Amino acid sequence: MADGSGRYVLSPAATWSRDGDELRVFSDEVLLVRRCPEAMFEWLKAVSDDPAGLPAPSGRQVDAIVRTLLRLRLVVAPFDRSWHSSAWRNQVEYFAALGLDAGAAQDRLRAAHVTVLGVGGIGGAVLAEIVGAGVGGLTLVDGDRVALENLNRQYLYRRCDVGRAKVDVAREWVRERLPEAEPTAVMETITTSEALVPYLREGGFLVVAADRPASLPELCAQACLERGASMITGGCGLRVGSSGPLLRPADVPAFIASRQEAKATAGAAVTPMAASFGPVNTLVGATMGRDLIFGILGVSARTTSHRVELLGTALT
Predict the structure, then answer these.
(1) 55, 68, 82, 97: least buried by Cβ within 10 Å?
(2) DSSP 3-state helix, strand, coil percentages of the chain (rounded to 5)?
(3) pLDDT tens-place string over residues 141-197
(4) Reduced to 3 states, what is the DSSP secondary structure of residue 92?
């Protein structure tokens, strides 16, 4: 049996129950095993309680069941539980349930560097996700100050912050939630790729969440190409939002070409849409945050961008 020499624990995303000789294992779906051997029940009880894990049982009656449990990741390799006294306990268990080396994944997030360009409605939502995930290196770039009309969707800010530089408030917000982080705040409106390059790290990541100038995605792509950084973009319309994909440096030339072709065909808006709705920004930002975190961890994902329907039917 594959991986028969390894040790396993019950996935943190799974639970199981017994009804006579029927076994049910619950996760996103339910696995039902009828006439389950007694040895299987005993093994599941043991791996549910032993963080070091146990070797998989072998034998004609249990081999197929164990293979299925492994294939569905209902049992996984033992994982680093030293994070159990940290804020990331549940996240590490989530990574373990995905089949990742969970402790190494959390270490990788802590060592990553992300530049967030624009800490408004979308950028603030992305920032909340990556800070919550434990990303340790952050540079925040935005030339705006908090305005009253921001507060319907930019949840980092309070009424008492109106008039303050967004990056200063955002930096304070990060430090409250992630004391070990040392975020850099840059109050600057980026209009050229040369201006952005100093705020990127080789092998780092860029979140493009500002909406001016119209050429911003292309100039960000040029800066990432120069620095060897990856980038993710997102935006909101009235009924449709877009997120991603995460572009590695090798993907950037094709992205630039596609943007130029789109502009030649359809043109480009000079100013962004003024209307805004908080849940829309948060939905797009959370999707970008998830894809960025998975990208940092090297979790494979589809390379197509997400198109999110924001409004199904008209109000009457």
Answers:
(1) 82
(2) 40, 20, 40
(3) 999 999 999 999 999 999 999 999 999 999 999 999 999 999 999 999 999 999 999
(4) helix
